[in-house]
Structure formats: structure tokens, C-alpha cells
Amino acid sequence: MNPAKVEDKLAVNKFDIDKEVHIRIREDICKKCEEHYCLYACPASCFKITEDHITFSYEGCLECGSCQIVCDKEAVDWALPRGGFGICYQYG
Amino acid sequence: MKQIFDAIVVGAGPAGCACSFTMAKAGLKTLLVERGKFPGAKNMWGGVFYGPTLNQLFPSFWQEAPVERYIKRHRLSLLTKDASLSAEFTAKKFGKVPYNGFSLFRAKFDRWFAAKAEQAGAILASGLQADDLLWDGNRVAGIKAGGDELPSSAVIACDGVNSFLSEKAGLRDKLSPRDMKQGVKEVIHLPRNLIELRFNLSGEEGIAWEFIGSFTRGIPGGAFIYTNKESLSIGVVVQLSTLAENKIEANDLLEEFKQHSEVATYLAGGKLLEYSAHLIPVAGSAMMPALYTDGFLVAGDAAAFTLTTGLTLEGANFAIASGLAAAETVIRSKQIGDFSQKSLSYYPELLKKSFVLKDLKTFKKAPHFLENPRIYSLYPEIACDLAEKIFTNDGKPRRKIWKLLRKSMERKISFWQVFRDLKKIKKAL
Asked: CB distance from B88 to chain A under 8 Å?
């Protein structure tokens, strides 16, 4: 059976995860945000919401840039992982 | 620091590789910087590539490039929840040299293309991130990468849709989610013979199958299935802003699409090999950044050179053609020893003469037209409903098609509205 959930799909991908975090979110802004577009825009489900709290995990990031573009409050400090790190597509 | 390079190209995708190849071949000292572990490692596309531009650069490229299948069949399906209406086109011509299109994987194709640039004399630095631009007054004078300063006469930003460099050069504003489509894709393994049986293909033939309909829940976009040698590429492409505003995740739409009864049978028994995602700039000329400044040029997705005409969404040929135009511009600048903004204004002149800016101008109104939600739910619904009425035999006296159509449209849309939408097609497409 093939996975349907994003987390399980990401498990088949090849990543070289950097120790350095490349994206940070500004939790003070996220706390006041009502839309939370990031939750739906991220194709890798890197954003999670717990009560009123948004958390972000960078490990499964596909480096598409959606979160930063969709956030109209500039709460996503987006950067790319260092050269050679991050997602490493074998097909693409 | 001593300047070693005439030109530094950032990003080894189709634009960057075409650009580096051409400059290196003309004898320019060229550095091609790629942040992925190898060219293609960061890149993804739907997977069908049309070849004329590349064929000019490398005649009969399909004999040596890592192509999967040549596209013999094109199919378009309109889906509702329970029905599907399809049209298919195939021609003998598509199965013959020079072939019309190919399915391809970026992780293989980009590596091949970058190797061509290397063979022509360019230096490829993989796993190296261009962190910033190097400035000399108002002139871009190179890049900063991996803690080093790398000076050059020209920098060509082929760094993709999120182009940091063109932002740093002050050539574009923050991107808008309305101008973006998000593509999510799965590569699913299936045995070769099963692919050929299921899709009615033989040998190296392939199919490009596009879908629009209810599975995007009215969000502008669609889905695709492309056949590779021993796998399928299957994905959805949807407008980023509407996705987020409606609180829908692209992966959920992809799952819904995969489970559609018309689609699921083709995927049965397949095994997931990769899940990928990427953004596509789709607003055409409306979102195009300034294309150059002193010592600096932008090409490919970084310049938003993609064409959307409804049935097609194309970027690779635009990337290659713009990469070539950028190369020609820099070669000319090197000859006259002038890399100023004025000298580089040769670049848009070349683009205006090629299909790049001509097509973008012709289809200027297409992006706006394609935001019409009726295209993605109401019209497929009416078409499927009409087909169902035509094909249903319920033992009652039959009615004329015109009357059936009126019935299908009843309480959904007026003829006047359809007429107005058709009129817009004429202008936009």
C-alpha cells in the first residue's frame, strides 16, 4: 500500500539534512495570525498547529518557497539550506 | 581578488546550462554554480519536454540525452466525481524523428546538460550556494559563495522561480501567491510491460495525459499523468493563493485525484519512488522582473519566462532560449568590452525577436482568463452531464442534443454567460 500522508511520502525521498536550520518563523507574529496560510501552502506539511502555537520543522522541506510567498505577515525568514544539503531528487 | 571568470552563471537548470554551454564554447571563461549536490538535485517538473530549441543546440539530442519516452499520444480528460469525458490525439508524425515531445527526469536531464557545458569548457561547481552578489558601486561584479568572493564581468541569474539574486539586484519585488502555481508530483514505479498494456503504448512510445475537473474543487489548475520507461509521473498543479485561502493542501487534491475511479486503475500495483513539489510562475509578462542591470542578467523561471495557454504550461524551452539570448549578449559585451546596463540592453532586444517575449505578448491575457473558476468545475460538470444524457438509454423517447444541453445547463449557467466566456477565450487564447 502506498502512503497517502505527506510525512510517509517524504520518507521515500533522499535528503541530506543540514544541522543548520534554514527557515525560521517569527512565533510572535504567528501567534496573532488568523489565516495560517502556511499550514495549507506547504506541500511537505512542515508547519503544524498546536492550540494557538505554530511550529515548523525544516527536515522535510522541499525548498519550494510557498510558505514565504503565501505569508502576508512576513513571518517566515526563508533561506535555502547550505549548498549540497536539503532535498536531493533522484528523479525530479 | 583576481578576476578569473568572464561570466558566472548561477543555477544549472536548462537556462543556466544552455547559457554556460554557449559562452564556454565561444571561449569565455565561465563558472556554472549549482547549489544541489549535482545538477538537477533541486529541480522538478511535470515531465514532458518539447524539443525544437534543444534540437537546434544539439541535433538529435534524444540519441544521447537521458529521455524516457517520446510522446506519441496526448489525452485530455474532464473529470467530475463520478464521470469522465476524454479526447485523445495521436499522429504517426509524433512517433518519428525529430519527435514532438519527450518525458524526462530533471535529476538525469540537468546532469547531462551540465556535462555538455563542462565539455565546452565551463567549470561546474556543484554543492555551492551563491549567497550574495558582489558589488562595485552600482555594478554587479560577481558573487559571494561558500565564504569566497568570486568576481566576474557578468553574472547570469538562472536560479529559478524564487530567484534570490534578482531580488538582491533590486530587479523584482516580493512574489505574489496569485501569480504562482504549486505542483506536487509522485513518481510511481510500474513494470514496463504493464505501462505499455495499460496505456496502449509500444516500444518507446509515451502518453501525456492532462486532466481538469472536480478534484481541484474549483481551484484553478489541473492534473497530469506522464509515462516514463518504468514509472509514471502523476501530479496536480494548482494556484497557490486559492489553495491557501480555501484551506486546502495540494497533497489532498492529489490523493483525491489518484483515487478517482478513472485514474486509480492505471496506478494499481505501483510503488512510490519519490514525492516532489515546486512552484511555477504563471502570470507571464505581468510578473516579469526587470531583466538586466549593470553586469547582471536574469533568465529562465527567475525571469518568469513560462507560458500558460490553458492546455499547456511550458517553461523549459523558454528557459533554454532565454539562456541562449543571455549568452549571446554577454559574448557581445565581451567583444566590445562593455558590460554596462546599456550594453546589456541587447538582451531584451534578442528576446523580443525570439518566441520568448513574442509568445508572452500573444498570450498576455491568458493568465487572467485562466483564473475563471467555471473552467475547472462548472464546464467539466456540464460536459460530463451532457455526455451522460447522450449515452444513457433509458427506454424513453430520445431528445435532440440541443435540448439535452439546455437541460444540462439549467439552473447552472445561462447561455449569455457561456457566450461571454467564449468571447474571452477569443481574446485570451
From this structure: no
